[in-house]
Fold this sequence. Notes:
The complex is a heterodimer.
Chain A lengths: L2 E12 L2 E12 L3 E5 L6 H8 L7 E6 L8 H4 L2 E4 L11 H11 L5 H11 L12 H14 L4 E4 L8 H17 L3 E6 L2 H7 L2 E6 L2 E7 H7 E7 L10 E8 L3 E8 L9 E4 L2 H10 L16
Parallel strand pairs in A: 3-7, 3-8, 5-6, 6-7
Antiparallel strand pairs in A: 1-2, 1-4, 8-9, 10-12, 10-13, 11-12
Helix pairs in contact in A: 4-5, 5-6
Chain B lengths: L13 H14 L12 H8 L3 H13 L3 E4 L3 E4 L8 H20 L4 H20 L1
Antiparallel strand pairs in B: 1-2
Helix pairs in contact in B: 1-3, 2-3
Amino acid sequence: MTEVIETAGLGKRYRDVWALSDCTLSVPAGHVVGLVGPNGAGKTTLLSLASGLLAPSTGTISVLGGPPPTGPAQLARVGFLAQDAPVYAGLSIAEHLKLGARLNPRWDAGLARARISRLDVDPRRKAGKLSGGQRAQVALTLAIAKRPELLILDEPVASLDPLARRQFLQDLMEAASEQELSVVLSSHLIGDMERVCDYLIVLVASRVRAAGPVDDLLATHHLLTGPRQDPPRLPAGVRVISASHTDRQSTLLVHATEPVLNPAWTVSGVGLEDMALAYMRQDAPLSRDHHHLGVCK
Amino acid sequence: MIEFHLDGRSGVAPYMQLIHQVRHALRLDLLRQGDQLPKVKDVAAGLAINPNTVLKAYRELEYEGLVAARPGIGTFVTGTLDGGSLAAHRPLRAELARWLAKARRAGLDDESIEAIFASTFRSAREEDIA
């Protein structure tokens, strides 16, 4: 299977601010990929590059084995849902579906109708009059019914209330299991990601800090607690992601491919959220040579 | 048919939670041979979880010989976990109930009872391993 997104040395600069730098990634097909990171980390920039809305300043990116979508053939294979689920406020739901059918060669009218009828709103209703949750569902319907191979969603649930958010993710997971569909979605809500994603990319201060299948990430990150050791003495191959010390105790979140056997440390597992947060808390020592003003819109 | 649920705070991986729930239902006779497990799509949509998580749980159960997938139809229960032990449940339960009553009379509250059970269970298991 081809990679859905592959980048090498990818960077995007706005004037003298790097919104994304030195991004090398290889995302296999068939996953629901979570892109997490603090606001301004470069998530929107990366997704916009992948969906062909932006051109890179340096490096290369390929999507589904080809260039990012610009021509009609590639555009039909990639669905993109921008932040805040944009819809045409003056058009009705039915008109949105008609538009979708005209613009998309692989449009699945039956699927679109079935999804809208589940929403329990009059299709003649103008999109501008819908609730945030309903608008997100209409936008998701348009993106799913075009039957893309890759669906890219930028912060799809950030502005939704918990009920609408759950509903949205339920429908997204249903689509992911019904169709041959790879999904990449960004969010700063890691709790949601933990349920729906089986592949995670942690982006901090315009750089990729960690990326891989969720199971692998969980298997290689551990929490060590033990008597105070500052700096900690650890075998080669064990990398400290975050450390905190009291006068007696040290607590370390580490990345280790081999088991940590030193009996001085009590080793326990780490949840995805704690792992991602540890990367986000790092002082980005790698990237001091760049300016990070967090501009990535 | 059983219905899955997820405890987001338990710290147990979602696919393990699904496996535990199937095993639990088998032990309690809520699932029997020939029963169908919920469809992957329905579990993914119902719980808003990744379909690969459900597939992974079902594959693991298949590997344990508890279920079998019939392509295009679904996943069905083929094994049992009672091992003839359902008959033994009743006297064990009665014995435990007597012990619980004794613990109450000795003034133990819920938490103390759970703690004493968990620590005894753990040390008994460690002795088994050693």
